[in-house]
Please model this.
Amino acid sequence: MFKNCYGRCDVRNELIEDPVFQYRMRLVREGEILRGEFWVEPGGGGRVEHYHPTVEERFEMLDGEITYRADGRKHVAGRGSKFTIPAGACHSFANTGSGTAHFLVQMEPALRMAELFEDAAALGQAGKWTTIGRHGIPTGPRAVIEMADFLDRYHEIFVPTSPPPALQRLAVPPLARLARRRGRVR
Model:
């Protein structure tokens, strides 16, 4: 997965940890493809149902088990499984096994997906999302403001399905501006 790119890729050799969603990852960008290697703890994962308007994700399970939902259907993927989440498909996943789930994912086009993962992990590490519930839903006013700022920055590549996207388009930009004016985020 992490081959020598001969200067044609952006290699992030450090392991990035997201304490809120309970996974570690290593990311490499090769042109328009972002390759990720993920280790997800039991119960962890991308539990917030969402979609990427223009990004396709291709998964290959190396070890462990995840249960994922894609367009309303539940699937279990274990070692050796491969599956694709097309751009625009609503999805989420969780490690439903007893050990660490280990998988590779290719995201294409890469766009700003690496920054999204890095930013989410940094917010979690800084304790900014301590009031974000287990399923990624804000549990207090401060968390709503912080989430609005995050969603506004990445709206072109990450859209949660709740609250409804139409409501997000109305509410997120003014809340994000409020967050930035008050200096409450970043």
